[in-house]
């Protein structure tokens, strides 16, 4: 397979990264999610490999690893941008409530739809299939909302991050129910959550205090390796590992809040802040590369023809309609009438794919068509695209109107006494 030789792979990987950068630039100008362009690129490569008579390649192990690392980097990147201040408390709580209620309500309705329309689907399996379809994609949302005003941008960063973490916790809580012997129940779940938070806080303080004293310039990837290690060990211990990453990001981004009183004596703020600044840069870069290859490989591995199935289209459309109906009610209650474009910024993506492939064998339903997954991801991404384009034009018209009024006011002069 000459096309997959060492030098060709180097060339191919380099071209994909360059194209991904160009897609990001196009996305910032057009509001078309770069993720959609990456999936299309993956599909194009898939057909290119078939044309070149390259045999079937199992991309799942690579996809799974990329998905996990990408998830960690995206959550860490989001956490590093979250400021914990008194004035931010209400926006954070509001985002948390909307994220949690939206997740559970969307999963419940999607589970009913799947149970009703898919043969052999049990209600327990329906919930497991519905949960990934109900989680917002921070991988798509966070890079896409940079052009919104600060309050709306913050809302989407908070909401998508909470949706990711709560969705993963809910998914693994549901998988625990498949094995009654290992299922700890609600009490065990919250006990696990409290233990995770305690371990995360201790680990965060220890990492900052140790790494601020490391004088070597080669320490950022060491820090990321430590975080990946903590995530992996947490998973082995059945902890909510993503919370460890989130709390570390919050602690290092808000050091003055967490290092108060006697603890402040141990903090070398200048050195620790330097680590924070460099970590912010490297997580953004790493998240970009990992996200690029995750969605390209996802495009490589999917059967694109499945989305043209009528049953797939009906089921997917009903799920998408339910997503926006529930979102409209929640935003109207908690935000008010100014809910554009927030209403339509609800894409599914990386975590949806990752958790779909993590559904245990005993809960898998052979009659479930993967085209539903792809249809919902593409559908919600396109709806977000059109909403962002509309909002951009609306904002442009508002600015033009305001400017024309200013010009008109400047030209108009009150008549003098002699003219009267």
Automatic annotation (TrEMBL):
The keyword Ribonucleoprotein does not apply. Signal peptide: none annotated. Residues 20-385 form the Cation/H+ exchanger transmembrane domain. It is found in: Cell membrane. It is a multi-pass membrane protein. Keywords: Antiport, Cell membrane, Ion transport, Membrane, Transmembrane, Transmembrane helix, Transport. The chain crosses the membrane at residues 6-23, 30-47, 59-80, 92-115, 127-148, 155-174, 186-211, 218-234, 240-259, 288-308, 314-335, 342-359, 371-390. InterPro entries: Cation/H_exchanger_TM (IPR006153), Na+/solute_symporter_sf (IPR038770). The keyword rRNA processing does not apply. It holds the Pfam family Na_H_Exchanger. GO terms for cellular component: plasma membrane. GO terms for molecular function: antiporter activity. GO terms for biological process: proton transmembrane transport. Its main location: membrane. This is Cation/H+ exchanger transmembrane domain-containing protein.
